[in-house]
Amino acid sequence: MNFLLMHQNHFKMFLPEIFLATSILVMTLHASLLVTSKRLGYPILTSSFGKLSILVLFLTFLLVNNNPIAFMLTYQNTFIFDLLTANVKQILLLSTICCLFIFEENLLRQQINNFEYFILILCAVLGLLFLVSSYDLISMYLAIEMQSLCLYVLAASKKNSSFSTEAGLKYFLLGSFSSALLLFGMSILYGCTGTTNFENYTILFSGVDVSTFSTSESISIALLFVGAAFFFKIAAAPLHMWSPDVYEGSPTSSTIFFAVIPKIALFAVFIRMFQTVFSSFEDTLLIMSIFFSICSVIVGSFAALRQRKLKRLLAYSSVSHVGYLLLAFSSNSLEGTHALFFYLVIYMITSLSLWSVILSINTSTNIERSKTLIDFASVSSLNPLIGLTGMIALFSLAGVPPLAGFYAKMVIFLSALSSGLVLVSLIAILASVISSVYYIRLIKIMYFEPKSDVSFVFPVTRSCSLMMGSGTFFLIYLFINPTLLLLLTEKMALCLY
Amino acid sequence: MSFFINEYFPILLLLFVAIGLSFIILGASYFLGNQRPDTEKNSVYECGFDPYEDSRNKFDVRFYLIAILFILFDLEAMFLFPWAISLGHITSMGFWTMCDFLIELTIGFVYAWKIGALEWE
């Protein structure tokens, strides 16, 4: 039997990943020979490697687009390819391109001259691509580990800063703890059922009353452990404690990557696992996700009120947004999943826009240190367009009507209400009112606070200004005409039902 | 439940055998061996470090680099043995998979070498 012929279609499906992996290898070899070359004078590759990474990701994006097959399980059912994975991969690759685009100049300024930084980002993206496609506990675990290990190093990548090292170590220790929880849950699942494959689980649990299983309780407990590990990775309260510290300590470029990219991949695989494969155990899971949702919105809203550092504030704000996402997840319906993906995409656009504002408010006094809220003072009079962009992004995060964030929150609350989660929605709405206090306080500081010191203002980079412009455009455009995004996210959600 | 016991009984047995065996080995060397304790022998062994130092001292990170690289190649050997034994059954797919693995490992090694991770002084 000719195995290469048999796996031909599998290779076709894996072409984007294979291309990305090969490019990573070639880039590693190329860079390690180049930076040690005495003849070339030990060149610094940051700028060219940034562009090269963008090119590689763009070509991977094209390959994902060019996929000929709509649905397929490959390699003994360990990976799945359908419209959901294709769309999530496209969103992932595009947002990583945006991230790389905006923080290239920041990397140069922070003197992170290692070419490994880009290779690690590409490896993390590769891990996320595998994670989105994984259809087996083992492939899922390996993919999660691949992306997490890269993220730990990215957090610690500013070698001369003790904050960055601390963030990396904290992230590593807590992340490996959550991986241990995940493995423990998986081992119980395997012990109870004798399989690790999602397809087998689906067949095993379909059409029977699972409460008659003798191991039904053990499976529920195992799913609690697996769920807890997932909530840890997406930083849902009360398992969020690592995220403010890691966000604060890491170099800003890594923080942007953590804040924007990994959530959508984790949510995609999480939803697939819990709403289709283990849907027979939804009682346990729904109680857990409702609990985490309430905790996250409350902690995210109240804890952020006391923050003075900008990155910590945004970390808590992302905790509260994870709370809303989990509310959509708890509604356990097509509308809920649809709302979740819609919210995620709009949240990514908004945070990219907001982070590029944060990257652009450098003055000679704050450029070296971590930014606090007061660094936003009188941004609007120094540069009215940055003020306007920041205001639009913050209002969209708060969910104020003429912006896309309003629709995002609205669809989530509507889906929760239609599933009968009235009390939880009420709590989330009240918490979102409280959380808008700190968004509006930031806007107040931007517009009405006078600047206390005299300093030289750095010019805005071209890439940041492009990102801010397009982010603001999408936030307004998606309010006027959200049909395109709604259709896309509905298509993604329909894959699961 | 009997299915459970059937399936897991060997593991329980293994647990008891492991505990018993470790007691026997430790106990035998404790009771039968000659013992002439001194401070050097009783001190904690700490892989080349003085065990009673201040723990805030700087240490050379290269120990760990070498150790990590060693573990990588150790694991590679561990993969190679079963692969070599079962090469007849796994056809060209298995052969090329291992080749791919070796090439990627070599690229990592070249990177570590060029970047100077293996240089001691």
Short description:
Chain A has 497 residues and is an all-alpha fold. Chain A has 22 helices and two strands.
Walk me through the structure:
The complex is a heterodimer of chains A (497) and B (121). With 497 residues, chain A is mainly alpha-helical. Chain A contains 22 helices and two strands. Chain A has helices spanning 3-6, 8-13, 15-35, 46-65, 83-109, 116-133, 137-155, 162-193, 198-205, 216-233, 242-249, 252-260, 262-277, 282-304, 310-330, 334-359, 379-382, 384-398, 404-418, 422-448, 462-480, 483-494, and strands at residues 72-74, 79-81. In chain A, helix 16 packs across helix 22 (483-494). With 121 residues, chain B is an all-alpha fold. Chain B has a domain at 58-121: Methane Monooxygenase Hydroxylase, Chain G, domain 1. In chain B, 69% of the residues lie in helices and 0% in strands. Chain B is built from four helices and no strands. In chain B, helix 3 packs antiparallel against helix 4. Classes of the chains: A mainly alpha (497), B mainly alpha (121). Chain A binds chain B through residues 1-4, 7, 25, 28-29, 32-33, 35-36, 214, and chain B through 1, 91-93, 103-104, 107-108, 110-111, 114-116.
